[in-house]
Amino acid sequence: MELHIAKDAAQLSENVAAWISNYILEVLQRQERFTFVLSGGNTPKQLYALLAKAPYNQIIPWERIHFFWGDERAVPFEDERNNAKMAFDTLLDKVSVNPDNIHVMRTDISPDASAAEYEKTLKTYFGKEQVTFDLVLLGMGDDGHTLSLFPGLPIVHEQKAWVKAFWLEAQDMYRITLTAPVVNNSACVLFMATGAGKAITLKNVIEGTFDAEKFPSQLIRPQNGQLHWFVDEAAAGALEI
Ligand SMILES: O=C1O[C@H](COP(=O)(O)O)[C@@H](O)[C@H](O)[C@H]1O
């Protein structure tokens, strides 16, 4: 695991934008297409806005990138809480992506149907054996959740399904999420976490004993890939390093 600490959230977003851009360009020297899994929530908004502007809007070959989502809130696309809408508003509507390469988790059908359809999409793209994303961008909630893997819920233990929908009582909505084993097959996973509100949880996730039931972000350990944590000083405040 590599830990990268930035002064604040703005600097963090700059650092991640530069890192991702270099990584995409490097990987695309070896292969034709790049698979990029986007996260939702607040943390990546600044990053997406930066990627949509110079120099990144010009140097990244956007038409060669396939976009996927790590999780979705099952609310209509027009709803501000919809993770895909946030990515369209901040990034995808502003760069020259190929619309056929954008693979959203649908919220206009039932959550279970959407999860089944997404799993089919992944199998069509990657083949039936396993998914290997080039880059998975993740956030971590103050409670230690990542994707839609929330503390204390059965979804944390899912080993078989690649994508699953479930009712999230605490937020009065369905969630659709990739599962931990799928993400752990990726070539690279990059977490972003900012703010003092995440400091104690981050310490538990990175330095604490393994308790995925309590801190699902601990489940993310790519088997053969890289794991990067990009955090700001406020989030890193309780770490011992
Ligand atoms: O609900 C979600 O939360 C996490 C973390 O969000 P943040 O607002 O603390 O950055 C996010 O990564 C996930 O995609 C989203 O659905």
Set down the secondary structure blueprint.
Blueprint: E1 2-6, H1 9-27, E2 34-38, H2 45-51, H3 56-59, E3 65-69, E4 71-73, H4 83-92, H5 111-126, E5 135-139, E6 163-168, E7 173-178, H6 180-183, E8 188-193, H7 199-207, E9 226-232
Parallel strand pairs: 1-9, 2-3, 2-5, 5-8, 8-9
Antiparallel strand pairs: 4-7, 6-7
The chain binds the ligand O=C1O[C@H](COP(=O)(O)O)[C@@H](O)[C@H](O)[C@H]1O.
Describe the structure.
It is a single chain. By secondary structure, the chain is an alpha/beta fold. The chain has one domain: Rossmann fold (3-Layer(aba) Sandwich), CATH 3.40.50. Helices cover 29% and strands 20% of the residues. The chain has helices spanning 9-27, 45-51, 56-59, 83-92, 111-126, 180-183, 199-207, and strands spanning 2-6, 34-38, 65-69, 71-73, 135-139, 163-168, 173-178, 188-193, 226-232. The strands form two sheets. Strands 1-9-8-5-2-3 form a six-stranded parallel β-sheet. Strand 6 and strand 7 (173-178) form a beta hairpin. Helix 1 (9-27) crosses helix 2 and helix 2 runs parallel beside helix 4 (83-92). It is globular and about 45 Å long. Ligand LXAUTJHC binds next to strand 4 and strand 5. The ligand O=C1O[C@H](COP(=O)(O)O)[C@@H](O)[C@H](O)[C@H]1O binds next to strand 4 and strand 5.
Order of helices and strands: EHEHHEEHHEEEHEHE
Number of helices: 7
CATH topology description: Rossmann fold
Total domain count? 1
* Gross morphology: globular
Task: Give the CATH class.
Answer: Alpha Beta
Q: What is the radius of gyration? A: 17 Å
Structural class: alpha/beta
Distance between the ends = 13 Å
Helix content, binned percent: 25-40%
Ligand types: ligand LXAUTJHC
What multimeric state do the chains show?
A: single chain
Largest sheet: 6 strands, parallel
| Largest beta sheet: strand ordering | 1-9-8-5-2-3
Q: Give unreliable regions as ranges.
A: none
Pfam families: Glucosamine_iso
GO molecular function: 6-phosphogluconolactonase activity
Organism: Chitinophaga terrae
EC number: 3.1.1.31
